[in-house]
Amino acid sequence: ERGGFQHFMQKEIHEQPKAIRDTLTGRLDEDLQSVALPELSWTDESLQAIDRIHIVACGTSWHAGLVGKDAIEKIAKIPVEVDVASEYRYRDPLVTPNTLVIVITQSGETADTLAALRDSKQKGLRVLAITNVVGSSAAREADDVLITWAGPEIAVASTKAYTTQLVTLYLLAAYLGQARGTLSSDAKAEVLGALAGLPTVAEQVLDAAPRIERFAKDYQEARDTFFIGRGLDYAVSLEGALKLKEISYIHAEAYAAGELKHGTLALITDGVPVIALATQTHLYEKTLSNIKEVKARDAFVLGLTWAGDEELKKSVDEVIYLPRTSPVVAPIVAVIPLQLLAYYAAVVRGNDVDKPRNLAKSVTVE
Ligand code: M6R
């Protein structure tokens, strides 16, 4: 049942090229001119009327929401807020009658996310669920549903659900942008082209597995690790740190790279592993200077950037090169080495990879 892999998590990481392809199928037309989401019941009028979006989710799905905000704001020009469901429920969010609420939940059964869905419906708001489970509570109760076609995810640590949530959010952003006339033809070519290329790119990133395994072995005794990045790289850092904590039990923190010097830099000392993401071209120089700051404190830095970059390797100890694609969809590519890092760290430490301590696949209590 694990298809020759040692753990479900490993299998699910390697299934991502297929999962991404399945999520795109039927939604992206062949000549990359438009996105179709026929499952949405929105009329053109209701679609034009959306004046803000609230994304609500937990854990990894919340991290997907952070990337979704960026994509929707950039591509569809609708203001988006992202909340963890356990906060959203109790903070009395400011909504308008035309606020669209998007809940993201792999299982479709997370208690806090479902409560946010129900509260929003009670307020008369339109709710869209992005879920991986057809027939789940979220799928049944939301007004509209987009299924992430990742296939069953068994490991507690979410991997292919996250990347397919991202694909779905990019599709949604492009769909909203095309309907509202905010998607320029350049942006269309960039985003839709990058999405179409993702299955191949994801396949290529998986080739980094042996190097990451070696890195995980060298750093298995680490007590603290830091993931740093700016913009979308910060969102992916949060996901990388969560994954590492969840299954390897190594303490990890994600930091917006520019925020380090406001306190956390005090923890960066000789040999502390720092995973530095530098995929955002427009933020590259700024991130590089933050990387130099941690290097100056003798951190051990593993950098992630695009193939062909000659600069980063001068300032870090090791580099993982990502096959080139648009920085807009970088999170889908950059997260894969971080999933592998968490996986191998958990394996070398002898942990129960698929069933980490204290955690459940689906959190059905508050
Ligand atoms: O099923 P959901 O997407 O609603 O689950 C939300 C979180 O419990 C989940 O993403 C959790 O953070 C993962 N175990 C992280 O790998």
UniProtKB/TrEMBL annotation:
Record key words, sorted: Aminotransferase, Cytoplasm, Glutamine amidotransferase, Repeat, Transferase
Domain of life: Bacteria
Record's protein name: Glutamine--fructose-6-phosphate aminotransferase [isomerizing]
GO biological process: carbohydrate metabolic process; fructose 6-phosphate metabolic process; protein N-linked glycosylation; UDP-N-acetylglucosamine metabolic process
Subunit structure and binding partners: Homodimer.
Main subcellular localisation: cytoplasm
Cited function: Catalyzes the first step in hexosamine metabolism, converting fructose-6P into glucosamine-6P using glutamine as a nitrogen source.
GO MF annotation list: carbohydrate derivative binding; glutamine-fructose-6-phosphate transaminase (isomerizing) activity
Entry GO terms, CC: cytosol
Active-site residues from the entry: K361
EC number of the protein: 2.6.1.16
Subcellular location: Cytoplasm
Every SIS domain range: 43-182, 215-356
Reaction it catalyzes: D-fructose 6-phosphate + L-glutamine = D-glucosamine 6-phosphate + L-glutamate
